[in-house]
Amino acid sequence: NNLTEGSRLGITTHWNVTSTLPVRTTNYQYFFSDKMEDKVVGTSDSFYFDAAELGAPDSLQVGTEAYPIKKGTFVYDSLEGGQMTAYYYYSDGYFADSARYYNEHLSTMSVCVAMSGGTPVYSGTHTSEGGAKTIVDIFESAGFENIYVHYPEPEYYGKDSEILSTIGYVIASRDITVNSDTQTLIAVAVRGSEYKAEWASNITLGDGIGEARGFCDAANQVEQGIYDYIRNYGLDAEDSKFWLSGFSRGAATTNLVAKRLTDKYGEDDIYAYCFEVPKGGVFSKLNDGLTYAN
Protein backbone atom coordinates (compact mmCIF):
# COMPACT_ATOMS: atom_id res chain seq x y z
CA ASN A 1 0.00 0.00 0.00
CA ASN A 2 1.12 3.54 -0.66
CA LEU A 3 1.12 5.25 2.71
CA THR A 4 -0.09 8.83 2.92
CA GLU A 5 -0.65 11.11 5.89
CA GLY A 6 -3.43 9.80 8.08
CA SER A 7 -3.36 6.32 6.57
CA ARG A 8 -4.02 3.23 8.62
CA LEU A 9 -1.93 0.15 8.10
CA GLY A 10 -1.06 -3.27 9.44
CA ILE A 11 2.24 -2.96 11.24
CA THR A 12 3.36 -6.49 10.48
CA THR A 13 3.19 -6.01 6.71
CA HIS A 14 5.54 -4.31 4.30
CA TRP A 15 4.49 -1.00 2.82
CA ASN A 16 5.84 1.63 0.47
CA VAL A 17 6.40 5.25 1.38
CA THR A 18 6.25 7.55 -1.60
CA SER A 19 7.04 10.81 0.20
CA THR A 20 10.58 11.92 0.97
CA LEU A 21 9.30 13.42 4.22
CA PRO A 22 8.65 11.57 7.46
CA VAL A 23 5.17 10.10 7.52
CA ARG A 24 2.80 10.85 10.35
CA THR A 25 -0.31 8.90 11.23
CA THR A 26 -3.19 10.04 13.38
CA ASN A 27 -4.01 6.49 14.47
CA TYR A 28 -2.44 6.32 17.92
CA GLN A 29 -2.27 2.54 17.96
CA TYR A 30 0.52 2.30 15.39
CA PHE A 31 3.13 3.53 17.78
CA PHE A 32 6.31 1.55 17.30
CA SER A 33 6.64 1.53 13.53
CA ASP A 34 9.66 3.80 13.98
CA LYS A 35 11.37 0.85 15.65
CA MET A 36 10.93 -1.33 12.57
CA GLU A 37 12.73 0.49 9.77
CA ASP A 38 14.14 -2.75 8.50
CA LYS A 39 10.59 -3.86 7.69
CA VAL A 40 9.81 -0.79 5.59
CA VAL A 41 10.22 -0.86 1.83
CA GLY A 42 10.29 2.60 0.28
CA THR A 43 12.28 5.48 -1.10
CA SER A 44 12.46 7.72 1.95
CA ASP A 45 15.31 7.62 4.43
CA SER A 46 13.06 8.78 7.26
CA PHE A 47 10.28 6.63 8.61
CA TYR A 48 8.65 7.48 11.88
CA PHE A 49 5.32 7.98 13.58
CA ASP A 50 5.17 10.59 16.31
CA ALA A 51 1.64 9.81 17.49
CA ALA A 52 3.09 8.03 20.52
CA GLU A 53 4.82 11.23 21.59
CA LEU A 54 1.57 13.15 21.17
CA GLY A 55 -0.18 10.65 23.42
CA ALA A 56 -3.28 8.52 23.04
CA PRO A 57 -6.80 9.59 23.97
CA ASP A 58 -7.73 9.02 27.60
CA SER A 59 -10.53 6.67 26.68
CA LEU A 60 -11.86 4.41 23.95
CA GLN A 61 -15.46 4.88 22.91
CA VAL A 62 -17.37 1.68 22.20
CA GLY A 63 -21.05 2.30 21.66
CA THR A 64 -22.22 4.51 24.49
CA GLU A 65 -19.42 3.44 26.85
CA ALA A 66 -16.03 5.10 27.29
CA TYR A 67 -13.31 2.72 28.46
CA PRO A 68 -10.06 4.06 29.96
CA ILE A 69 -6.87 3.55 27.96
CA LYS A 70 -3.72 2.46 29.76
CA LYS A 71 -0.42 3.61 28.25
CA GLY A 72 2.74 1.76 29.15
CA THR A 73 6.04 0.54 27.78
CA PHE A 74 7.29 -2.88 26.83
CA VAL A 75 10.60 -4.41 25.81
CA TYR A 76 11.27 -6.56 22.77
CA ASP A 77 14.26 -7.93 20.90
CA SER A 78 15.89 -5.90 18.17
CA LEU A 79 16.84 -7.78 15.02
CA GLU A 80 20.20 -6.09 15.30
CA GLY A 81 20.73 -7.45 18.79
CA GLY A 82 19.90 -6.03 22.16
CA GLN A 83 16.52 -4.80 23.32
CA MET A 84 14.19 -1.96 22.36
CA THR A 85 11.52 -0.20 24.39
CA ALA A 86 8.24 1.02 22.89
CA TYR A 87 4.76 2.04 23.95
CA TYR A 88 1.63 -0.05 24.23
CA TYR A 89 -1.99 1.02 24.73
CA TYR A 90 -4.37 -1.30 26.54
CA SER A 91 -8.10 -0.96 27.19
CA ASP A 92 -10.77 -3.30 28.52
CA GLY A 93 -12.90 -1.80 25.76
CA TYR A 94 -11.05 -3.96 23.24
CA PHE A 95 -13.20 -6.83 24.52
CA ALA A 96 -16.57 -5.06 24.45
CA ASP A 97 -17.51 -6.43 21.03
CA SER A 98 -17.73 -10.06 20.01
CA ALA A 99 -14.41 -11.69 19.15
CA ARG A 100 -15.83 -12.39 15.70
CA TYR A 101 -15.18 -8.75 14.79
CA TYR A 102 -11.60 -7.76 14.02
CA ASN A 103 -10.31 -5.04 16.35
CA GLU A 104 -7.27 -3.25 15.01
CA HIS A 105 -6.36 -1.81 18.40
CA LEU A 106 -6.47 -5.22 20.05
CA SER A 107 -4.47 -6.54 17.12
CA THR A 108 -1.75 -3.98 17.76
CA MET A 109 -1.76 -4.66 21.49
CA SER A 110 -1.49 -8.36 20.67
CA VAL A 111 1.60 -7.66 18.56
CA CYS A 112 3.15 -6.02 21.62
CA VAL A 113 2.36 -9.08 23.73
CA ALA A 114 3.66 -11.46 21.06
CA MET A 115 6.86 -9.47 20.69
CA SER A 116 7.46 -9.21 24.41
CA GLY A 117 6.61 -12.89 24.76
CA GLY A 118 9.50 -13.88 22.54
CA THR A 119 12.58 -14.82 24.49
CA PRO A 120 14.70 -11.71 24.96
CA VAL A 121 18.48 -11.60 25.10
CA TYR A 122 19.30 -13.50 28.26
CA SER A 123 21.73 -15.76 30.01
CA GLY A 124 20.69 -18.63 32.19
CA THR A 125 17.34 -20.37 32.43
CA HIS A 126 13.98 -19.33 31.04
CA THR A 127 12.32 -18.01 34.19
CA SER A 128 10.25 -14.99 35.16
CA GLU A 129 13.58 -13.29 35.81
CA GLY A 130 15.09 -14.56 32.57
CA GLY A 131 13.42 -15.44 29.31
CA ALA A 132 9.89 -14.53 30.42
CA LYS A 133 10.59 -11.31 32.29
CA THR A 134 9.45 -9.00 29.50
CA ILE A 135 6.05 -10.64 29.11
CA VAL A 136 5.58 -10.69 32.90
CA ASP A 137 6.38 -6.98 32.94
CA ILE A 138 3.85 -6.06 30.24
CA PHE A 139 1.08 -8.08 31.90
CA GLU A 140 1.80 -6.56 35.31
CA SER A 141 1.96 -3.07 33.84
CA ALA A 142 -1.40 -3.55 32.11
CA GLY A 143 -3.02 -4.58 35.39
CA PHE A 144 -3.06 -8.37 35.10
CA GLU A 145 -2.65 -10.59 38.13
CA ASN A 146 -2.12 -14.26 39.00
CA ILE A 147 0.67 -14.50 36.45
CA TYR A 148 1.75 -18.07 35.74
CA VAL A 149 5.04 -18.60 33.92
CA HIS A 150 5.95 -21.77 32.04
CA TYR A 151 9.17 -20.98 30.19
CA PRO A 152 11.33 -24.12 30.27
CA GLU A 153 14.73 -24.35 28.67
CA PRO A 154 13.95 -25.29 25.02
CA GLU A 155 14.26 -29.01 24.32
CA TYR A 156 13.29 -31.40 21.54
CA TYR A 157 12.82 -34.94 22.79
CA GLY A 158 12.42 -36.66 19.42
CA LYS A 159 9.62 -37.82 17.16
CA ASP A 160 9.24 -41.09 19.06
CA SER A 161 8.67 -39.34 22.38
CA GLU A 162 5.20 -38.94 23.84
CA ILE A 163 5.90 -35.23 24.24
CA LEU A 164 7.91 -33.90 21.30
CA SER A 165 9.32 -30.72 22.77
CA THR A 166 8.95 -27.98 25.29
CA ILE A 167 6.83 -24.86 24.74
CA GLY A 168 6.96 -21.61 26.64
CA TYR A 169 3.87 -19.66 27.65
CA VAL A 170 2.64 -17.17 30.22
CA ILE A 171 -0.95 -16.94 31.51
CA ALA A 172 -2.43 -14.02 33.43
CA SER A 173 -5.89 -12.70 34.25
CA ARG A 174 -7.82 -9.66 35.36
CA ASP A 175 -11.45 -8.79 35.95
CA ILE A 176 -12.96 -6.51 33.32
CA THR A 177 -16.37 -4.87 33.11
CA VAL A 178 -17.72 -4.44 29.60
CA ASN A 179 -21.30 -3.80 28.60
CA SER A 180 -22.14 -3.61 32.34
CA ASP A 181 -21.03 -7.22 32.82
CA THR A 182 -17.98 -8.19 34.89
CA GLN A 183 -16.01 -11.17 33.59
CA THR A 184 -12.53 -12.60 33.92
CA LEU A 185 -10.15 -11.95 31.05
CA ILE A 186 -7.59 -14.74 30.72
CA ALA A 187 -4.55 -13.71 28.66
CA VAL A 188 -2.12 -16.21 27.14
CA ALA A 189 1.18 -15.35 25.47
CA VAL A 190 3.08 -18.14 23.70
CA ARG A 191 6.83 -18.07 23.09
CA GLY A 192 7.48 -17.60 19.39
CA SER A 193 11.14 -16.71 18.92
CA GLU A 194 14.56 -17.84 20.11
CA TYR A 195 13.14 -21.24 21.01
CA LYS A 196 16.22 -23.08 19.81
CA ALA A 197 15.80 -26.88 19.94
CA GLU A 198 12.01 -26.59 19.83
CA TRP A 199 12.36 -25.64 16.15
CA ALA A 200 12.65 -29.31 15.20
CA SER A 201 9.02 -29.83 16.18
CA ASN A 202 8.01 -27.30 13.51
CA ILE A 203 8.81 -29.87 10.84
CA THR A 204 7.53 -32.91 12.75
CA LEU A 205 4.32 -33.24 10.79
CA GLY A 206 2.44 -36.50 11.24
CA ASP A 207 0.43 -37.75 12.75
CA GLY A 208 -1.36 -35.10 14.76
CA ILE A 209 -4.67 -36.48 13.45
CA GLY A 210 -5.62 -33.48 11.36
CA GLU A 211 -3.01 -31.17 12.88
CA ALA A 212 0.72 -30.90 12.28
CA ARG A 213 2.11 -33.07 15.05
CA GLY A 214 4.72 -30.60 16.32
CA PHE A 215 2.23 -27.76 16.65
CA CYS A 216 -0.42 -30.15 17.96
CA ASP A 217 1.97 -31.28 20.68
CA ALA A 218 2.68 -27.69 21.70
CA ALA A 219 -1.02 -26.81 21.61
CA ASN A 220 -1.81 -29.78 23.84
CA GLN A 221 0.56 -28.44 26.48
CA VAL A 222 -0.73 -24.87 26.33
CA GLU A 223 -4.36 -25.98 26.34
CA GLN A 224 -3.78 -28.15 29.40
CA GLY A 225 -1.92 -25.27 31.02
CA ILE A 226 -4.98 -23.06 30.55
CA TYR A 227 -7.30 -25.63 32.10
CA ASP A 228 -4.91 -26.10 35.02
CA TYR A 229 -4.75 -22.34 35.48
CA ILE A 230 -8.55 -22.06 35.52
CA ARG A 231 -8.78 -24.83 38.10
CA ASN A 232 -5.93 -23.57 40.29
CA TYR A 233 -7.35 -20.05 40.52
CA GLY A 234 -10.95 -21.14 40.83
CA LEU A 235 -12.11 -19.34 37.69
CA ASP A 236 -15.33 -19.90 35.78
CA ALA A 237 -14.37 -20.58 32.16
CA GLU A 238 -17.98 -20.17 31.04
CA ASP A 239 -17.95 -16.61 32.40
CA SER A 240 -14.52 -15.68 31.06
CA LYS A 241 -13.02 -14.15 27.96
CA PHE A 242 -9.80 -15.55 26.50
CA TRP A 243 -7.14 -13.44 24.80
CA LEU A 244 -4.34 -15.32 23.05
CA SER A 245 -1.40 -14.07 21.05
CA GLY A 246 1.68 -15.56 19.43
CA PHE A 247 4.24 -15.17 16.66
CA SER A 248 5.58 -17.85 14.29
CA ARG A 249 5.66 -21.19 16.15
CA GLY A 250 3.83 -19.45 18.97
CA ALA A 251 1.21 -18.30 16.45
CA ALA A 252 0.61 -21.80 15.10
CA THR A 253 0.25 -23.05 18.66
CA THR A 254 -2.05 -20.15 19.57
CA ASN A 255 -4.16 -20.77 16.48
CA LEU A 256 -4.79 -24.41 17.37
CA VAL A 257 -5.48 -23.65 21.03
CA ALA A 258 -7.93 -20.92 20.04
CA LYS A 259 -9.70 -23.34 17.71
CA ARG A 260 -10.13 -25.84 20.53
CA LEU A 261 -11.36 -23.18 22.97
CA THR A 262 -13.78 -21.96 20.30
CA ASP A 263 -15.12 -25.48 19.84
CA LYS A 264 -15.68 -25.66 23.59
CA TYR A 265 -16.83 -22.15 24.53
CA GLY A 266 -18.00 -20.55 21.27
CA GLU A 267 -16.68 -17.74 19.09
CA ASP A 268 -17.73 -14.61 20.92
CA ASP A 269 -15.27 -14.72 23.83
CA ILE A 270 -12.10 -16.25 22.30
CA TYR A 271 -9.92 -13.40 21.01
CA ALA A 272 -6.97 -14.88 19.10
CA TYR A 273 -4.44 -12.74 17.22
CA CYS A 274 -1.68 -14.67 15.50
CA PHE A 275 1.21 -13.24 13.51
CA GLU A 276 3.20 -15.02 10.76
CA VAL A 277 1.18 -18.19 11.30
CA PRO A 278 2.41 -21.52 9.88
CA LYS A 279 -0.39 -23.82 8.83
CA GLY A 280 -1.13 -26.18 11.69
CA GLY A 281 -4.41 -27.90 10.83
CA VAL A 282 -6.71 -28.98 8.04
CA PHE A 283 -10.10 -27.69 6.97
CA SER A 284 -11.86 -30.96 7.69
CA LYS A 285 -11.29 -30.45 11.43
CA LEU A 286 -13.53 -27.37 11.50
CA ASN A 287 -16.91 -27.79 13.10
CA ASP A 288 -20.08 -26.98 11.20
CA GLY A 289 -21.86 -23.86 12.37
CA LEU A 290 -18.70 -22.04 13.47
CA THR A 291 -17.07 -19.37 11.33
CA TYR A 292 -13.79 -19.23 13.28
CA ALA A 293 -13.71 -15.53 12.48
CA ASN A 294 -12.29 -14.90 15.93
Structure notes:
The protein is α/β, with parallel strands linked by helices and about 290 residues long. It is about 20% helix and about 25% strand. The chain has 5 helices and 11 strands, in the order E-E-H-E-E-E-E-H-H-E-E-E-H-E-H-E. The protein has helices spanning about 50-55, 105-115, 135-140, 215-230, 250-265; strands at about 1-5, 15, 60, 65-70, 70-75, 85-90, 145-150, 170-180, 180-190, 240-245, 270-275. Strands 7-8-9-10-11 form a 5-stranded mixed beta sheet, with helices on both faces. Helix 4 (about 215-230) links the parallel strand 9 (about 180-190) and strand 10. Helix 2 runs antiparallel to helix 3 and helix 4 crosses helix 5 (about 250-265). The protein is globular. The chain starts with a strand and ends in a 19-residue tail after the last strand. The model is unreliable at about 1-55 (pLDDT under 50).
Key terms:
11 strands, disordered N terminus, two-stranded parallel ribbon, 22% helix, single chain, 294 residues, alpha/beta, 5-stranded mixed sheet, globular, 5 helices
Strands, helices and their partners?
Elements: E1 2-3, E2 16-17, H1 51-54, E3 59-62, E4 65-68, E5 70-77, E6 83-90, H2 104-117, H3 133-141, E7 145-150, E8 169-178, E9 181-190, H4 213-232, E10 240-247, H5 249-265, E11 270-275
Parallel strand pairs: 1-2, 9-10, 10-11
Antiparallel strand pairs: 3-4, 5-6, 7-8, 8-9
Helix pairs in contact: 2-3, 4-5
Summarize the structure.
The protein has 294 residues and is α/β, with parallel strands linked by helices. The chain has helices at residues 51-54, 104-117, 133-141, 213-232, 249-265; strands at residues 2-3, 16-17, 59-62, 65-68, 70-77, 83-90, 145-150, 169-178, 181-190, 240-247, 270-275.
